[in-house]
Amino acid sequence: MIFNLIRKVLALCVILLFISTSILPGFCEEIKNTKSYSGEQSNISILDNGVLDVNYIYNITNALSNIVFTEYDEEHGEIAKGREFGSKGEHKAAEILAENMSALGLFTQKEKIENIPSLHMCSKLTYKTEILDYKLIITNKTNGHSEIVDCSPMPSLNGPLTKPSELDYNFSYTGLKVRRNHPSLLEDKEDYILISGLDSPKFVDPNYVTCQGYKFYIKYLKTEIKSKIDFFLHPHFKGYLYYDLGNDTHDQGGNKCAPQFLINGSVGRRINNSIEDYTVDFYLNQQLNKSVISYNVIGQLNGTDPSKTVLVDCLYDCLWDQGTADSAIGMGIVMGIAKYFTDNNIVPKYNMKFIGFCGEEYGMRGALYYEATHKNENIIYVIDLNQLGFKQDYPRLKLEIVTNKIKFTDEIWNIVKRTDYVNRTGNVTDIKPFTQLMGHISDDRVFAIKRPFSCKTVCFLKGGPWVLHHRDGLNHTEGDVLKYFDWNDVSVTGEMIWNVTKYLTVESILQ
């Protein structure tokens, strides 16, 4: 009987997973149009008069985006790490948010995250592989010309088998041969680096698809397993070069078994088109930091029913770029909603917490900590914002409205439709509701998984083939940068999210 019960429970879990990833077709959607991407974006000159103060949102966005320029001394060798988890840039962002929340009259606190040994997922929240120094040099063997390449290194999860597991090790190689594929085991007699990259938007890459649920993690896991096998089988394999679709930008983020350097398309294609002419030198110094300092920034507005709490949140960290759309803009909209409440003296029905979560790019660290340390808080709604408010006419993107419950999706979608987002933003972006029992790949996921029965979550995220996702370049002036801030989109999106927030927290008082 026990065996049959266990079997039924497992069957139910499988059915739930199937439902969560099969609500709508196009679960993992590849770009169909192969038109080449020029990198040019059109400007929408007429600002749609929305509800929120877009100038205020822009000012918050601008302050967060500029941190990559203002907080680091690159001339003296300091790596400009933007608002990366635990960096001085993230600390500065926390100060900016806390100051602005206090100025709005919110009860404000910076909540330092800590390790939670009793919870496996939260046991190492303050651990991070820290890149200390790096350099990538390519040499043309024909003319002897060498150049330092603008790039982003990805920290290596595993070094040579003789190195310790604490990730406290360095890599340094000179004269590496460039190859497109691993040689046979018999041919593997000289050190080499593999090169690959994006040559058209049709390339299937996690940054160029809409991929939700466990399929994202399966794809990532398969890549990591292959990387580890390659690293083990080929002792002369020393790392990866991965070039971008854009000529001026390179990708960022992630981890590999072997060191990987992400470079722009112009350099990558030049090497790939003539691999026999180039050799590569690089060094990568890194160590494990077990005591990263990072904060969730929380601004509270008390409601008439303090027994329940609503979170309006966004990540405020990013990678080594300006991180404008991912997600200084989203954080600005969170602040804009808070400002609307206080400017208009609106008292919500429930306690409201406007939160900037830290460490989202490192696995939703801030959200994990908050959920684990606020178990007694009755969080009934989580309104999560992610990448929003940026220009891209081609390829066409989709503003995704993702909730963790089917009926809640219908409920929220009825509110969202009132905003007429597609027409008011120039018909360059689609909009679609989804139901994912596990939430989106954002901070809402933590609450959807940890509190599936007591908490309803909704995530707003412009997804699909965003060609500048996690991109940086030209001394942080290209990629995910402020010049792609779309005033009109921000205005309409902000109004939409305000309408949802109002519906969940205010309209019940007015009725």
Q: Assess the beta-strand content as a share of residues.
A: 25-35%
> Ends: how far apart?
52 Å
Classified by CATH, the class of the largest domain is: Alpha Beta
- Radius of gyration of CA atoms, rounded to a whole number: 23 Å
Helix content: 25-40%
CATH A-level architecture of the largest domain? 3-Layer(aba) Sandwich
CATH fold call of the largest domain: Aminopeptidase
How many distinct helices?
A: 13
Q: Which structural class matches the secondary elements?
A: alpha/beta
What is the topology, as strand order, of the major beta sheet?
2-12-14-13-15-18-16-17
Main β sheet profile: 8 strands, mixed
Q: Unreliable runs, pLDDT <50, ≥5 residues?
A: 1-46, 159-164, 203-213
- SS elements, strand count: 20
CATH H-level homologous superfamily name of the largest domain: Zn peptidases
Any idea what the shape is? globular
**Overall residue-averaged pLDDT value:** 86
Task: Fill in the keyword field for this structure.
25% strand, 511 residues, Glucose Oxidase, domain 1, eight-stranded mixed sheet, 13 helices, Aminopeptidase, alpha/beta
Task: Compose a concise summary of this entry.
This protein is 30% helix and 25% strand.
Structure in words:
By secondary structure, the protein is α/β, with parallel strands linked by helices. It folds into 2 domains: 321 residues, Zn peptidases (Aminopeptidase), CATH 3.40.630; 162 residues, Glucose Oxidase, domain 1 (3-Layer(bba) Sandwich), CATH 3.50.30. The protein is 30% helix and 25% strand. The chain is built from 13 helices and 20 strands. The strands form 4 sheets. The protein has an 8-stranded mixed sheet with strand order 2-12-14-13-15-18-16-17, with helices on both faces. An 8-stranded mixed sheet has the order 4-3-11-6-7-9-10-5, covered by helices on one side. A hairpin with a 5-residue loop joins strand 3 and strand 4. Helix 2 crosses helix 7. The protein starts with a helix and ends with a helix. The N terminus is likely disordered.
